[in-house]
Structures are given as structure tokens and as C-alpha cells.
Amino acid sequence: MTAEIASRTKPAxxxxxxxxxxxxxxxxxxxxxxxxxxxxxxxxxxxxVYSFDHRGTPEKPGLVLGLDRGGACRGVAFRxxxxxxxxxxEYLRSREQTTHVYREVMRSVWLENEGRDRVxxxxxxxxxxxxxxxxxxxxxxxxxxxxxxxxxxxxxxxxVLSTVKSIEAQGFRDPKLHQLALMxxxxxxxxx
Length: 192
Prior knowledge:
Blueprint: H1 3-7, E1 16-20, H2 23-26, E2 34-51, E3 62-80, H3 85-96, E4 102-111, E5 118-126, H4 139-148, E6 150-151, E7 154-155, H5 156-169, H6 175-190
């Protein structure tokens, strides 16, 4: 079933919604039947997680996104058919919970569709008590960490730039992330 057709059908009660705000927007890695721009209120997107695995190492950490307290976050809500619910959750746990820096929670998100529907979606919120929680870092420190970060999923620079590209494709901007991306683009120009 195509996403367009699926969006016209009423979701089953046990369908799973997943909220993506970082790499899940551009590389979900699971099968879904619908994707809709969405907004989560109460948490915001922030480069607030030291990456010791996917985009860095404990010796040379990178920096990845987390949902942190306060504000709002625009992203993408993916609808997964009920029969794939458990399989999708298992996949997301193996991907997002390698070091348990995130808390797996259900959050209300508002779909930016014709009906402005509210759904309950699975989201990964940063655990502020975890050793990998970076908190608010200066732009200079973010740039330093992103430049050095490289882990099993690749270099940190590509992660940031791919996320910014995905945000732009959704038709909005994230001012702080866009500012960092401009600095990373300047780096590439300097090293040519």
C-alpha cells in the first residue's frame, strides 16, 4: 500500500507512530505506511548527546541530537502498521538504545496534515542523568566535537549535514543547527 493511499485510511488502533527529529527523518530503517510532518511540544531538538558509538568513540566523542526539555520540535511522524509494531520497536531499541542515553517514551505529536490530528508517538528523549548528556554547549564546542566525531555509522559532519538537509526538505529551519551546518560547509571550502 502506498503512503498516499494509506493516509486516506483510518489508522488501526494498534498502529505505531514513531517521531523522528534527527537521523530517523532521513534514514528511518524500518517499514512504514505513512509519513507526516509533525510537531512535538514540550521538548526541543538539541545537539546535547556525546556520541560514543554511532558518530564517535569514548576517546573522541562526537555529538548527536536528543530531545531535551522545553520548547517544541518539528520533525516527522511515521505510521507503522500494527503487525510490524513489535519488530519496529525491537529495531529502534537496537539502534537508539546502544548506550541507554535515551528514554523510550510515548509523546503526543500534532500531525501537520489536513486534520491537524494528534497522535501518541514513540520518541527517544535524552536522559539528563546519563554520562553522555552534554547539556548546552557553545557553538564552538559543538563544532569541535562534530569535526572530530567518527563512529560505526560514519562521520559526525555527515550526520549534521544530512539532518539539516532533511529539515529543509520538510520546509522549515532549525536556526542553531543551520548555523553549525554553515560552519561545517565553510570547513569543506577551506580544505579544498
